[in-house]
Amino acid sequence: MAAADPIRLVVLDRDGVINRESRHFIRRPEEWIPLPGSVEAIAELTHAGFTVVVASNQSGVGRGLFSGDMLAAIHERMTQTVEAAGGRLDGIWFCPHRPEDACECRKPRPGLLRQIEAHYGVTLQGIPAIGDSYRDLEAAWRVGARAMLVRTGNGQETERRLAPDAVVEVFPDLAAVATRLIGESQHR
């Protein structure tokens, strides 16, 4: 009997990667607006055999700006939008804490990514982790993931902050990342 193919994970940040970023937080489902091409990119990754998950700081819960139930409704809208385009989000991990809470799950700490590792029983070493903020990259580096920056959301500002020797791949948007990952997977 042949061994099962190893899982091909892709970890996405949410705000600024999948949907529009908001300095005032995404507080209601109708405020969740996908970035052009992002939902289609998730669908393409899904069809190419990738398992797509989300790891996102959501301190608006801890700040009392919206409830956990409202966050669940926002995530339901995101999930339904992705599914309507033919894609799938296999899981959504989020940190509800405020920055001053000093929790282990808030990026740049690696807690969310460690939770994903535990859930799938894998290491994220070399696994694509896509974000738009420096804290997304730091979390990826801490677990040895393949740090990928998109210029959407806070990405252009983050790119300006990168050290010349930073180990990160930079892309215009999630669609460009999907194209790269799918192309690489076809040449293995």
Using the coordinates above, name the CATH class.
Alpha Beta
Listing every helix as H and every strand as E from the N terminus to the C terminus, the arrangement reads EHEHEHEHEHEH
Global outline: globular
- β-strand number: 6
Instruction: State the domain count.
Output: 1
> How large is the share of residues in beta strands?
5-15%
Strand order of the largest sheet: 3-2-1-4-5-6
Question: What radius of gyration results from the CA coordinates?
Answer: 16 Å
The helicity comes to: 25-40%
CATH architecture identity: 3-Layer(aba) Sandwich
Low-confidence stretches: none
Please give the alpha-carbon distance between the first and last residues.
22 Å
Q: Superfamily at the CATH H level?
A: HAD superfamily/HAD-like
Note the total helix count.
6
Structural class: alpha/beta
The whole-number mean of residue pLDDT values reads: 95
The major sheet is characterized as: 6 strands, parallel
Reported by name, the CATH topology is Rossmann fold
Walk me through what this model shows.
There is one protein chain. The protein has six helices and six strands. The radius of gyration is 16 Å and the shape is globular. The longest helix has 17 residues, at 68-84. The protein has a six-stranded parallel β-sheet. α1 (38-47) runs parallel beside α6. It has a single domain, classed as Rossmann fold, CATH 3.40.50.1000. Helix content is 36%, strand content 15%. By secondary structure, it is α/β, with parallel strands linked by helices.
